[in-house]
Amino acid sequence: MKLPFPAFATTTASSLRFNLRTSKSAQAWAIGRAQNDRRQIWPDGTETEAHFYNHIPAGRTGTAWLAQFLGDNLKVASKHEPLGVLDFGTQMPEISHMRRFNTLGMDASMKTFWQNKLSSLQAPYAEPNHTLGKCGLIEALAESDLADRSTAIILRRDLAKQCASYVSRNDFQNITIAWQWYLDMSYPNIIVDPAILRPMGQIGWALWYALEMETRYAYYVLKISDRINFVETRLEEATTPQGATRLLAALRRKAEPILPPKRDAARLNNQVTEALTAEIRSLLNRIRFDPVALASDYIKSGKSLSAPAAQNALAA
Asked: How far is the CA of 176 from the CAs of 103, 180, 252, in angstroms?
């Protein structure tokens, strides 16, 4: 299957770097992870009564599966995405919230949304809702009295399959879908420069979005792991008995895991998607990309995802 995009150069000065743990960034990442590991998250025996489980994924990474997994295994109220008519703007971000945060940062309107959202929650509670992490969830939690009772789960997935899922569903065909559920390349508050991926159309947008989210994971761990507990896993691992056991252990649970059935597995089981995944994997293998280094440089420059774009421009 031949995809309609130009040759992807990886030798120019503007090339991305795809090495998740390079020596240049390993020290900064280790410091962030050590801060997270040293934190006293919650007193033993109180997590069932008092804890909140959140999620900062990219979407199409197993969020619906994780919602059921957390509910079944932690015995907590677990909601994937509040989609009722009255939920948008209160429990669920609207397009305006997604666009405001990634353009204006944590302004008064966003602070009001998060104050109302967080104050409405009753522990124990889990919400693997991938929109929240793209419009200030981690910042809001870090500044709230829920910080010491919160765990943010970073659920990754094979990036080639993840991007193929976006493209096969035409997720970046209509701008309003990107505004409501993902991210827009044109937002001023982004970390990864999309310039060399923009000419590739939907495939380039899917690649940029996946890499931007990888970089935001690193950004939050480096910047806020002294206040929020982060737990990392991969869908391919978490859906196995051994991986699920490790995930529960990271969440302070020692029990035989209950594994929900995989979601949407049949949708991607066809020759077209397999060929698309292979093409995207080939592209990813040619990209030099280091999200930890990019996030570290972004932080060192004085920029912040929660700051207005104008302020970030001054820091550049």
From this structure: 16, 6, 39
The predicted model scores a pTM of: 0.85
Both tokens of 20, joined, read 């998740």
Band of the pLDDT at 57, cuts 50, 70, 90? confident
Q: How confident is the model at residue 55 (pLDDT cuts 50, 70, 90)?
A: confident
User: Would you give the DSSP letter of residue 252?
Assistant: T
Q: Which CATH number, 2.60.40, 3.10.290, 1.20.1070, 3.40.50, labels domain 29-311? A: 3.40.50
Structure tokens at 169: 């569903």
| Per-residue pLDDT reduced to its tens digit, 224-233 | 999 999 999 9
CA dist., res. 103 & res. 88, Å (int): 20
Residue 2 has pLDDT above 80, yes or no: no
N residues, the chain:
316
Q: Which of 119, 159, 152, 111 is nearest to 133 (CA)?
A: 152
Q: What is the pLDDT of residue 13?
A: 29
Element (H, E) at 211: helix 201-224
Please say whether the beta carbons of 280 and 207 come within 8 A: yes
Strands 77-78 and 229-234: unpaired
- Burial (CB < 10 A; 0-12, 13-18, 19+), residue 174, is exposed
CB 157 within 8 A of CB 237: no
Average pLDDT, the chain: 85
Do the Cβ atoms of 42 and 148 come closer than 8 Å? yes
Give 201-247 pLDDT, tens digit per residue: 999 999 999 999 999 999 999 999 999 999 999 999 999 999 999 99
Backbone angles phi, psi at 155, to 5 degrees: -105, 110
Q: Where are the domains of the chain?
A: 29-311
